[in-house]
Protein 1
Amino acid sequence: MALVKSKKIVLTIIISLVIGFLSGCEVKLPTFLTKPDVYEIFSILDQYYYKDLDFTIDDVETVKDIFERLDDPYTYMYVPNTRTIELDESYYGIGITITDDEQGLLIASTNPLAGLETKIYIGDIIKEVNGTTLSTLTYDEKTVLLSGDLGTEFALVIQRGDQLIETSVSVKEIPIQSVTSKMLDNQIAYIDINRFAGKTGLAFRTELALIETLNPNGLIIDVRNNGGGYLTAVVDIIAQFATGNEPVVTMHRMYDDHRTNYYGNTENIRKTYPIVILMNENSASASEVLAIALRENGGYPLVGTKTFGKFVYQTTFVLSKQGKEMYLNMTEGYWYSPNGNTVEGGINPDVLIEQSGLLFYEYPIYQQELILGDDITSLPALIEVLNLLEDTLPDRSEPFTIDDELVLKIRAFQTAQSLAVTGTLNYETTIQLIDYYRVLIKEVAYDYQLQATHQYMVNYEN
């Protein structure tokens, strides 16, 4: 009888719902049934986000609404293998960083180790992938067209200024080389950390051991333009220098008010050679953890310019209700230096050393042919390269327009490079200058900020 009664109750509920719908009464179903994707994201944020939410689930209709209400650039969803920090010292990909554009996908940067020098330029817009036009697609629909297994090839149509270019790229294994080193003049060692990937700590340990066999007179650790990465990687590097038994960084998880301390190696002995950390406005997150830890724990000077000031950290959740495999990168809390300080607003250097010369200017992008009288104030990098390569005529100091003297210098450059001698910054000439620019910016001789830091170390040692 009990079973029969239960069935009658269920049937009564169903009939009541049907009657409710038929009679015009609204029957409100719970959000986890009607909008499971929204419910999933909201529930995680409501429980684990580092701040109390100032809205309820009834205030948002879509996942996009949630992120707009948060207004947090560090909390977002992403497809696996598109925004993750690499675990190893290589990854499978094309070697480009892209942003959305109404025409397609804008090339924001390229990996110099991806072999794209003659194919892709910063500022290019991918308009077609394998015959599919991108302008009418969403960002997710665009990016999925560039995903594939190792060896997958993509035929691209690219808008480069006023030029339409056809080219192809493929998915391949691309080295990261998150840590590189060299010995500069006067036995000043130099180690560059371009990101904190999964094995960066080990890579740094290897490079440091190699450098120390050469008996350096000093060490420059460069974290310029390094936006961060894995905490474990940066703690591993700090542990190679930190002394004492105090924490080198503390993570404060807000939802349960939990603090986690990370320590160096209590058996460490302070290095016998001077060390400086070179940083700039694009040094963020893990780079700032390293910089302030070495300053407060070891008294090592920070040189360069003020850092970015990212004083929060994120954690990742695997999502299952978004229609496809997705991750949620979410701000969970704050981090603090050995002395309990935050880097909100950025870290000021102990010694201000600003960039100048070629690397001071923005990356040059071709837009259209520029002729006598045209404005070139946005292309100082090209004029700087022209001055470096063409030395038969006087250098031009940041001219505002193409004048008669600049025409002569362009013509001299075109003659020396066996280009069509037009006296204009046409496509071939501009691309040739950009190609030279991409080579020159890799050379220490044109990195005046590094050169000044090197001289500071020489004087420091003396």
Protein 2
Amino acid sequence: MEYRERKRILFFGLPWTFTVYTVTDDMINMKRGFLRTVEDDCYMYKVTDVKLETGFMERLCGVATIICYTGDNTSPTLRLIHVKNARAIKDFILKASEEARMKRRTLNTLNLNGVPEMDVDDIDS
């Protein structure tokens, strides 16, 4: 499955921008620009969390912003700004990212307490 959506302006949610978001089973692609284009890709298995934000004006225009938190070096947060069908796209990203992690057998961990990880052999008995 593939979602292709264009960034929209908040004036009635019209697609008058030069930013195109493409979400597939294994990748998220953002292509921006008219004269100078920039493409940014993120593999789906690197997406760790997804958030949906909808402001008052966005609700009136029928659009929302999807924020993807990733383990990607170039863009740790991907913002799909003012897109239609945002809830369906967000649910698709969540499901596809989980399936991609299971397929690649990756594990995402965080060291929240600031203590360096230690090997079991380094512990004195």
